[in-house]
Here is the input.
Amino acid sequence: MNKLRIILIAILLLLLAVIHVMLEKGVVDTSEINKNVSNSGGYNLYISKGENPEKVYLRDLSNEIRYEWTLPETSKNQGYHHVTPFSDGSLIITKEQLPNTIGDYIVLDKDSSVLNTIEVPDLYSHHDSEPLEDGSILGLFLRQVEVEYRGNTIPVIDDVIARVTAGGEIIESVSLYEIYKDTTVFKDKLARAHQHSLNPETNMALDIRFKKLQVPGYDFFHSNSIELIKKDIPGVARKGDWLVSVRNIDSAVIIRPETQTVVWEWGSGEVAKPHYATIINGDTLLYFDNGRDEKQTRAIEVDMVEKEIVWQYGQKQG
Here is the structure.
């Protein structure tokens, strides 16, 4: 076994030496490599989970830290999920909804001091939020609904999209349960959740998995991003509509809050357990496909009018 290890190490060293010589003699054109890995600029803003205390970092694409904020310490059962910046250097941070979490959002100034803690009654924040120009916050929330099915009460986690004030008052809201409760997709999930509730030892598919959050129940929707539509997209959406990524129905949907209806939907059969839907170039959907069924993750762009993938980047077993 030791001889085999020595031979493998020797082969690896030989390969490294050959590559070095090729680079020295110009056999490999490094300028072309650099072109392929170039980027379009910008910054990355993220929460450093695992640090104590946790921090928010702003890094450039050379991985240099340009600014950092320190988050308030939390108990073992609390955490932070998503961060969005304001133009003045302050941040709004969505809290993770774990047992005993207090409050839905906190607002920090540029010096990491807490400016505000926002708590929305009877709803529990998760994943994503967007501060709007009028001072309100568009966010994703959880609540529990109890659904009667064949004499059995099934606890379901309802995803609620709501616009709230800085004081936590609900201005308007839409329930995914109310939108989907009469659809074939929902009824199929309900039947499978019913079977699981009768025999809890059986395995559950990811799209209905029972979760013990502040509102325990079967996770039929699992929305993970929210975005306000900033201008009309002819044939697709109007300014003021809401773009939501709903992981457990494999879809990005556009909801019209005034009518409580879905006006555009794409993804089912094309992506698997997707994340983070956002609009670029006015009428193109940029979407991350987790690809759990095909074991292939992809970043894709979708023509929202034609509902066709126009670009993708991904890797098998990625």
In short: Residues 2-24 form the longest helix (23 residues). Residues 4-38 have pLDDT under 50 and may be disordered. The chain has four helices and 21 strands. Residues 147 and 237 are 31 Å apart (CA to CA).
